[in-house]
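Customer ticket, subject: "Can you confirm the structure for DUF1657 domain-containing protein?"

Message body: Hello, I'm evaluating your service for our small team and ran a test protein. I'd like someone to confirm that this is what the system normally returns, since I don't have a reference to compare against.
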Amino acid sequence: MTVGTKMHQTLTSLEGAAADLKTYALETEDKNAKKQFTDYANQIESIAQGLKGRVNYLESQEPQYKVFQQAQGKMQ
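Agent reply: Thanks for trying us out. I re-ran your input and got the following:
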């Protein structure tokens, strides 16, 4: 597994965690919990954005790490 693949998996996991937290915020009626879930989701989204920038940089420097484009090419 390449570094690019691992970074994409981490990014996907972070995005999934943020989505879960947003769902929890919508489902709870406790205002404090709702705020906490929303705050946590925002923090994770911020981390994911930073990692996404790093992934983009990595892919621009090392084209072999363009995981999604390679996967799409294999599917076609």
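A couple of notes from the result: The helical segments are 3-27, 31-61, 67-75. The chain has a mean pLDDT of 87. Feel free to reply with more questions.
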